[in-house]
């Protein structure tokens, strides 16, 4: 996938404002971005559903504007909102797609059965999709996008609204597609999902790419490690934070209390700093129940590059989940 200078406007809105990206064959690119960043617009252009105003995009060797018919034969798409035929059963939906993709009756039947099994829909296979729950519809939609073994798969927020077990099932199927050679572009609001599946990440905001790189590179960009300290009693968190601030330890930036976790987060860049902070807290008589270091999370990476505060990022995701 080679995308250069993609621009798409809707009236006064510049949904895409010059997007460049490259996805190497057989890899997964995660596209992260807040609501309205332009993720779905990008997926719709790359799957030939809409045309860009300017810029170019080649996918699997085909130009998305000049060779849409050829491109459509090699791509699979799961849109942000499930699109299944309500009147047909789960099996019939998949069988129909298989037949449209030129599978023989026998192969279409076998493949539909296989995909129903993989997405835990076998029991519901004969019921009309109209009676499916939201999560079941999404799974059926995902199964449909994978039925023809597409060389390129687009997944637009594939696990929004799915329960944790089902989310794992979907991740497993995406990994299986990649092992079989597929190239995947995945948009998501879940940092964990990007971390689980993506080789590389592109962060978009207001139609522009604001950061890109390998997951580990993006994490490194944010800086060193975070020292996570858990006091025996969370009530002392503010006092611990103040103690670290007042000690004026060399090179230690402001510590952050995370009441929801009952922990204090201290950004550090060396083992000496780690030792100094733990020694200080011990000397001040704080009883510690846990000490850990971790790389910055993708949430923190996202924050660092978008400038949004944690509360907003977390709140946005929660609202979205609640809405879904
Ligand atoms: N058909 C359309 N007509 C008018 N405006 C549109 C249309 N499609 C998208 N937009 C606008 O383009 C911008 C990008 O929308 P897009 O759906 O690509 O965002 P997104 O990153 O997918 O967001 P979300 O995370 O909410 O799905 C938004 O401001 C949106 O309102
Ligand atoms: Mg979208």
From TrEMBL:
It comes from Streptantibioticus cattleyicolor (strain ATCC 35852 / DSM 46488 / JCM 4925 / NBRC 14057 / NRRL 8057). The keyword Acetylation does not apply. GO terms for biological process: daunorubicin transport; doxorubicin transport; response to antibiotic. Pfam families: ABC_tran. This is ABC-type xenobiotic transporter. One of its GO terms (molecular function) is ABC-type xenobiotic transporter activity. PANTHER family: ABC TRANSPORTER ATP-BINDING PROTEIN, DOXORUBICIN RESISTANCE ATP-BINDING PROTEIN DRRA. Its main location: membrane. Coiled coil: none annotated. Residues 1-231 form the ABC transporter domain. InterPro entries: AAA+_ATPase, ABC_transporter-like_ATP-bd, ABC_transporter-like_CS, ABC_transporter_ATP-binding, DrrA, P-loop_NTPase. GO terms for cellular component: plasma membrane. NCBIfam families: drrA (TIGR01188). It comes from the Bacteria. Keywords: Antibiotic resistance, ATP-binding, Cell membrane, Membrane, Nucleotide-binding, Translocase, Transport. It is a peripheral membrane protein. Its EC number is 7.6.2.2. It is found in: Cell membrane. PROSITE patterns: ABC_TRANSPORTER_1 (PS00211), ABC_TRANSPORTER_2 (PS50893). Belongs to the ABC transporter superfamily. Drug exporter-1 (DrugE1) (TC 3.A.1.105) family.
């Amino acid at each position: 996938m080679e995308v250069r200078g993609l621009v798409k406007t809707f009236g006064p809105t510049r949904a895409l404002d010059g997007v460049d990206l490259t996805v190497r064959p057989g890899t997964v690119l995660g596209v992260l971005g807040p609501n309205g960043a332009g993720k779905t617009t990008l997926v719709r252009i790359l799957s030939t559903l809409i045309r860009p105003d300017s810029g170019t995009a080649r996918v699997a060797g085909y130009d998305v504007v000049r060779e849409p018919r050829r491109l459509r034969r090699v791509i699979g798409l799961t849109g942000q909102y499930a699109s299944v035929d309500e009147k047909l059963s789960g099996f019939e939906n998949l069988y129909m797609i298989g037949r449209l993709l030129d599978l023989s009756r026998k192969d279409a039947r076998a493949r539909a059965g296989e995909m129903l099994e993989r997405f835990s829909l076998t029991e519901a296979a004969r019921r009309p999709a109209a009676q499916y729950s939201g999560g079941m519809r999404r799974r059926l939609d995902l199964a449909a996008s994978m039925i023809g073994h597409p060389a390129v798969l687009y997944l637009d927020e594939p696990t929004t609204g799915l329960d944790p077990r089902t989310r794992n099932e979907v991740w497993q199927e995406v990994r299986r597609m990649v092992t079989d050679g597929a190239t995947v572009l995945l948009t998501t609001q879940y940092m964990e999902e990007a971390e689980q599946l993506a080789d590389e990440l592109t962060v978009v905001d207001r139609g522009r790419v604001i950061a890109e790189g390998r997951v580990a590179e993006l994490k490194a960009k944010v800086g060193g490690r975070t020292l996570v300290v858990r006091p025996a009693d969370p009530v002392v968190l503010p006092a611990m934070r103040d103690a670290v601030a007042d000690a004026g330890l060399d090179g230690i930036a402001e510590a952050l209390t995370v009441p929801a976790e009952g922990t204090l987060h201290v950004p550090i860049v060396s083992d000496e700093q780690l030792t100094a902070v733990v020694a200080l807290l011990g000397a001040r008589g704080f009883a510690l129940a846990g000490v850990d270091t971790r790389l910055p999370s993708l949430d923190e990476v996202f924050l660092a590059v978008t400038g949004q505060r944690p509360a907003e990022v977390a709140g946005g995701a929660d609202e979205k989940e609640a809405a879904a």
